[in-house]
Design goal:
282 residues; mainly alpha; 2 domains
């Protein structure tokens, strides 16, 4: 008994040390980014590795400077616009498509339900050059709405799959009762299915927002005018400026990172629940 107790304590200690180690690895870059953004330029120039947050050394001047002088407010507004619109359209189209696949009968339904995620077999870099050529010919380059179309193509397959799997877990009796009571199919979706599926829809919205907010490759390829830059593209623009200090660069990274962290922590339980529902075999 004593030996088993010692083994349990050792295993618990090993797990605790491992957890502390991996959490430290994950959190340290964020800690370094925040402290570096608050340190003055002179202190960072003397000792860039001094990461101890002394109250007398901290200043928020970098945030106001990067927001006003580098048009970071414009980048933030562009990202918020594209991400919010992507969430709205993705959730709307994914809800209708997933409900159609889960509830209605039509030819090719089985093939369609199995091929939803085929697009993820192709890395984004593979389609980047053809998309660049196509967007140039169609006049969609340097347009936030053109970027929105790409984000829809990126997020819709997973959104449809997640909601389809969730809809399959809902009892169809409630929807049939609504149809018997005189509701149309859209009425059933709006009054019964959607209220029951809010956790899954919230997880889809969170997933979609994070993808659109953090995306860089297509924003870098298709956006040319600084007035159209999103946050990821704007940070690269700031980093390319040789006169920009490390403090300003870290401040811009914090501004881009903190909102998505706050949203994720607030809605994390919905994301886990939605991903779990998406793992249920249909």
């Amino acid at each position: 008994m004593e030996r088993e107790h010692v083994e349990r304590l050792s295993l618990g200690l090993f797990r605790a040390l491992g957890l502390i180690f991996f959490v430290s690895i994950v959190l340290f870059p964020f800690y370094w980014m925040i402290v570096a953004s608050l340190k003055s330029i002179m202190i960072l120039a003397v000792n860039p590795l001094d990461l101890w947050p002394r109250p007398t050394d901290l200043t928020f001047s970098a945030y106001s400077e990067v927001w006003t002088q580098f048009r970071f407010g414009r980048y933030f507004a562009n990202s918020l616009y594209v991400s919010s619109l992507t969430v709205l359209l993705t959730v709307t189209f994914a809800t209708l498509a997933a409900y159609t696949i889960a509830r209605l009968r039509f030819k090719g339904k089985s093939l369609l339900s199995r091929s939803i995620l085929v697009i993820y077999m192709f890395p984004a870099i593979v389609i980047a050059v053809p998309m660049y050529s196509l967007y140039t010919k169609l006049g969609l380059r340097n347009d936030l709405h053109g970027l929105l179309l790409i984000y829809l193509a990126q997020t819709l397959p997973v959104a449809i799959y997640m909601l389809f799997s969730y809809f399959k877990t809902l009892p169809p009796d409630l929807e049939e009762a609504g149809l018997i009571d005189g509701c149309t199919r859209l009425g059933v979706i709006g009054r019964i299915t959607i209220p029951l599926s809010l956790p899954a829809m919230a997880s889809v919205a969170l997933y979609t927002f994070m993808i659109a907010w953090n995306e860089f490759l297509f924003a870098f390829l298709f956006l040319d005018s600084p007035s159209k830059f999103t946050l990821s593209r704007g940070i690269v623009q700031i980093a390319d400026n040789i006169n920009v200090s490390q403090q300003l660069l870290m401040a811009s990274a914090v501004i881009a990172t903190v909102p998505i962290i706050i949203i994720f922590l607030a809605l994390e339980r919905y994301l886990v629940r939605g991903l779990t529902a998406g793992a249920v075999k249909a």
